[in-house]
Amino acid sequence: MRPLYYYQTSVVCIIPLLFCNIFPLAAADSNSNSNSNSNKSQSKRGLAYQNGAHKADNRLLLSPESPVAWYYTWSLWPAPEAANDTAAVEFLPLVHSTDDVANDDFGKQLDGLPASSTHLLTFNEPDGDTGSGGSAIEPEDAAKSYIDRIAPLRSSGNDGRTWNISHPSVTGSPRGLDWLRRFNESCWDLDREKGCPADFVAVHWYGEFEGLKGWLDTLHDFYGHTPSSSSEREKSPKFWITEMALPQQDDEATLRMMNQTLPYLDGLDYVGGYAWFGAFRKGEKANGWTGDAVSLFDDEGGLTELGSLYLSSGHGGNGNGDGNGNGNGQDGSGGFEPGKKGPPGDDDDEGGAASMYSASRWFAVVVGLVAAGLVAW
Ligand SMILES: *[C@@H]1O[C@H](CO)[C@@H](O)[C@H](O)[C@H]1NC(C)=O
Ligand SMILES: *[C@@H]1O[C@H](CO)[C@@H](O)[C@H](O)[C@H]1NC(C)=O
Ligand SMILES: *[C@@H]1O[C@H](CO)[C@@H](O)[C@H](O)[C@H]1NC(C)=O
Ligand SMILES: *[C@@H]1O[C@H](CO)[C@@H](O)[C@H](O)[C@H]1NC(C)=O
Ligand SMILES: *[C@@H]1O[C@H](CO)[C@@H](O)[C@H](O)[C@H]1NC(C)=O
Prior knowledge:
It comes from Apiospora saccharicola. The protein is an alpha/beta fold.
């Protein structure tokens, strides 16, 4: 459809990885009741966490009052800002490459995660090439890793926890679908009994609301479940939209798209979660391709109208009461008005994020990566 979009998106999405500090793993939390906070229990809303973004912004998004109920970091490492609240906000680790799983520490890393972590994401945009920052994994290689190291975690993680696992999250494009088709073929070639079993499907979408609906339908067809009858719907794997935005449009169009999208996804039984791209401030390079209008924060760290909308009405489905006593939908922003900022903290490094995303720094990182031979294949 718009290959350039997806191509460049991969660049945007890998940026957090380039700055992937090795955070100490959050101590496993014995309180695994991930739904104890009523502000989050009915919410599908998630955070695509930008490592290196402003800490105060992340604290606001992850706060107990926020409807953000889960987050991921494009990596196996949780966010430091969430360390105190691990039971309330589920962390979804992401296996980025076949190297991640080949590493002997892979199992240990997963074991160290809070008990509330039960969903594992695999291979981010494997159909994107490394030259543009995608993970560029051949379907055959991905299938082999998946069967050898990932699928076994479904029945027993190394610490006895069972993981719900997603198929690789391809770009929202025909190229992505083609990759999934070849992945499936390889899976069945390697394991004629089970293929590559998955519990949910991670989805990426950049474009208009109507296009998102169409893409979800396309994936439903692909997985053999047309959502036309309720019995079929029940068989459907859950879809988690881990990246979505309307790129390169103005504030008004973007707000309209989000305003259509959130209630739609909230109302679909087969959608388990979704995360907007992205949690950054206007004027920073992380949104160089998507444009500024997708930013949840303004250039001073206050919520944009879009950010305010994302943090409001995060409860339940179609406007039915869910027992929370919380209004669904059009009842204002529930304390997250535009301009609201995250709480300041000791560990703030304000100003760092902006320069981190500067074009020259980014260029240096890419050159460094190439030089280091990390993209040798
Ligand atoms: C939920 O959010 C409200 C404000 O919107 C806050 O007063 C309440 O403490 C929050 N609940 C929890 C469990 O943090
Ligand atoms: C976590 O809690 C401790 C103790 O209450 C506090 O000192 C620290 O600042 C908190 N960390 C974050 C990231 O909120
Ligand atoms: C995990 O996946 C299975 C289907 O494979 C599903 O029945 C179960 O509800 C899922 N668990 C969660 C917590 O989503
Ligand atoms: C995957 O391949 C198997 C075996 O060829 C086939 O039966 C199945 O329909 C395929 N699934 C998808 C989602 O394409
Ligand atoms: C969002 O949609 C509702 C109707 O579904 C409408 O009342 C409201 O004005 C819209 N808000 C924005 C910001 O577009």
